[in-house]
Every structure is written in structure tokens, then in C-alpha cells.
Amino acid sequence: MGAAVVDPIKWRLIVDGLVERPISISLEQLKQMPQTHVTSFHECYGSPLAAPTKNVWRIGCVSWTGVPLRCLLSLTRPDLSIGTYVWSDGLDSGTFAGVQSDRYQKDLPIEKALSSEVLVAYEMNGKPLGKERGGPVRLVVPGWFGTNSTKWLCRLSVQDRRSPSPFTTVFYNETDPTDMTGKKIRPVWGVEPNSIVVRPRPDEFYERPGNIEVWGRAWGSEEIIRVEVCIGHGKTWTEAYVEPRKQFEWQLFRLTILFPDVGTYIISARATDRRGVQQPLTMRRNHVPSVRIHVGRSIY
């Protein structure tokens, strides 16, 4: 499924379903509504066909401008006694992994849809959304994987059940790591604790032993309260400084470590969120990242 080509002049957003007053609004009407700004990390889940143990590492931090989804929903007077999900339709269509789809469709639980951070966005980093980024308008769901932030948005619909779309039933589901049987499947929604070592770079060379600053980024659907760094094979972890989170931004961590001897070292980092959920060592997409460096010993 490729990028949709959308005429901003003709574009309309329909909000309907289990509501008292369905609406259809233009881009200009949307921009006249009270806007808000949210800065959040944005992580691609990667191909749903890839092994669930594969790191993707496509992550950025983005400033979005738009209208809170709950403001649009309030205009329609949704029936919250039976409306439990909000379906979102994108204008992209085609075949994915042999499955034909007329539209890309996802869903959000109504509780998440009514959260203040969820936006119907028309700007990214202060500029109008381009075609490749899902413009002119896309959904933005901070803290959740990018697959839930529907691009080329054209419709929002309050419904009493989950969407039957292949992108909710066939693709973008994963094994629940909390299920000991390994049989329970859950939607790809919230991002579990994750981190990446930014410096040192992989295979970076240092001329002599001494102190080296290790720093990186950590993120997740919940605030990261602890990042630990290990030199070696996971036996001893040292707690790093972690910058408090602002909105849904990724968080800086840093730690200065003494490397006393010449040699090759493996640096690993693991994050823990405020619920106590910890980044796993192996077997998940968000498993602990590692970087190899060389002190006083060049690999070249």
C-alpha cells in the first residue's frame, strides 16, 4: 500500500457512527478550531510480518500541531453508553502481504481516543504535513506505535466493537509477554520500555583507557524512571541519570564510566518505566540494545 494522493482543497473529514450529530469538515474549518501542540516520540513498529524478536530502531521525536480528537468527538455527541471504539480510516489502499484492502483502518479504545494528547494533526515540526507524512491530516496517538496514527485521515467513526479491518485482525497483533502460556495475543498499541545507546557509536575506538561518557535515549508509553548501563554480559548494572519526561518526549540518559584497561567492551542499556515494566534482555522487539567499543585497540 503506497502513499495516498490527497487534494487539500477537496479533503473532508467525516466523524460519524454512534453519534447524535455526524459532521463533515474541511481542512480550513479544522484549522479554525482551537489547536494544541504535543511533542512525542514516534516509533514505527516495523513490518508485522517480521519476527517479534527483531529490533526496528526507527524512532524520532516530533512536535505535532492539531485539534484534540476529543474536541471533534464532542461536537458529534457520541453515545458513550455503547460506543467503545473509534475507528480511523486512511485514504491509502491496495494489497499488503496478499491481502486486499480498500482503506487502511485502525481503531482506538474510546478511553484512549478521549485522552487529551490524541490529536487530529495537520502540522509536523511547525510545517504542513506532506504527503509522505500522511498529510494533509493524520491521526496522532502519542505513546502508541505509529501504526495506530492513521495517515491520510478521512473518517472517524464511533463504534461498539473493534474494527474488522485486516490491520486489526490479521496484522499488528503480538504475543502478550505477560502470558506464561505464550498463547494470548494482544493488539500492537502502547510502546513498551525501550532505549538506545547513542554514544559511543558502534565500534568506536578510544586511544587509551579512562572515563567515557555513555548517553542515549529511552522512551515508552509510560515515563521511564530508571535506565541502567552494563559493561560486559549483564551481570552488573549501574544506574544512569535520566532526564524527566516532558509530554511524550523521549528521555535523555547519561553515565560516565571508567574503562581501566585496554580491550573490547560491550555496553548495554535497559529502561524501566513507572509501572515497573523493564526492558527485556532478549526475545522481544524492544530487547536491550548493545554497542561494542574498543579501548586502546583498533579493529582496523
From TrEMBL:
Its cofactor is Mo-molybdopterin. GO terms for cellular component: mitochondrion. Transmembrane segments: none annotated. One of its GO terms (molecular function) is sulfite oxidase activity. Keywords: Metal-binding, Molybdenum, Oxidoreductase. Residues 191-286 form the Moybdenum cofactor oxidoreductase dimerisation domain. This is Oxidoreductase, molybdopterin-binding domain-containing protein. It comes from Aspergillus minisclerotigenes. The lineage of its organism: Eukaryota, Fungi, Dikarya, Ascomycota, Pezizomycotina.
